[in-house]
C-alpha cells in the first residue's frame, strides 16, 4: 500500500507502551497472589500449632496425674483375686513414664513448614498421652477391682464362719446362762447375718464386716452370761460345802462331849471309884504249920482255917470263928 491509502484502512494492534504496562501489572498481581497465599498458609499453621501445643500440654498433665495416682498406693499380689493384673499395671506405668513429650524448640512464626511440623508433633504427643492415660486408668481400675473382690470374698467368708460359730455357741449354752434373753438376742443376730450373707450385688466389704461385728457382740453377751452363771454356781457350791463342813464339825463336837460325859472325860464318871480287888499277903505260921492270910484293906481275915471279919488277926489273942 502506498501513502495514498486512507488511514482508516491500516491494521490495528497494541502499542508497545501499553503492552509493557499490562505485563508489569500481571506480574504484580501474581506476586501479590503468591504472597497472600503464603501468608494465609502461615497463619493457618501457626493457629493449628498453638492449639496442638495447648492440647499436648493438657494431655501430658493428665498423664502425669495418672502416673502419680497409680504409684501412690503399693499393691501386693496376695491382696488381689487375680495377682497377674499387677504385671499389666506395672507395664502401663512404664510406658507412661517413657513418653518424652515434644521438644521445647519453638518454630519460626513465618516459617510455615516448621509450624506444620511442630503442630503434628504436638498433636501426636497429645494422642499418645491420652491413649496412655486410658490404658493406665484401665489397668489401675482392674487392680483396684481385683483387690475389692478379694476383700469382699474374705469379709463374706469371715461372716459365714462367724455364723457357724455363733450357732454352736447358741446350742452349747442352752440352760447354761444367767440371762436367757442374751440367747434370744443371739438368735436374732444370726438371722440378720444370714440375711446379709444372702444379699446380691454387695460392693462394700463393710456390709459384711458390720454384720460380723454385731454377731460377735451378741456372742460375747451370751458367753459373759454363761461365765456369770458358772461363777454363781461355783460360789453357791462353795457356800454349800462350807455349810456342810460347819454342820459336820458341830456334830463332831456334840458327839465328843457326850462320849466324855459317859466314858472318858475327867469331868464325868471315874473308874477309880469303882470295884478294886483286895490286896492279900501271905505270912507263914509258926503254930503247927498253919498259915494266915491278911487283907490290909480291912476285908476278911483267915487264921488257922478260921475267918475273922474286921479284926486284926495278926495278934495271938485273935480267936478264930467257929
Top keywords for this entry?
322 residues; 4-stranded antiparallel sheet; rod-shaped
SSE topology sketch:
Elements: H1 16-72, H2 85-98, H3 112-172, H4 181-197, H5 206-264, E1 280-284, E2 291-295, E3 300-303, E4 306-309
Antiparallel strand pairs: 1-2, 2-3, 3-4
Order of helices and strands: HHHHHEEEE
Count of helical stretches: 5
Largest sheet: 4 strands, antiparallel
Cα radius of gyration in angstroms: 67 Å
DSSP strand count:
4
Describe the structure in your own words:
With 322 residues, the protein is mainly α. 65% of the residues lie in helices and 6% in strands. It has helices at residues 16-72, 85-98, 112-172, 181-197, 206-264, and strands spanning 280-284, 291-295, 300-303, 306-309. Strand 2 and strand 3 (300-303) form a beta hairpin. It is rod-shaped.
Please give a quick description of this structure.
65% of the residues lie in helices and 6% in strands. The chain has 322 residues and is mostly helical. A four-stranded antiparallel sheet has the order 1-2-3-4, with no helix packed on it.
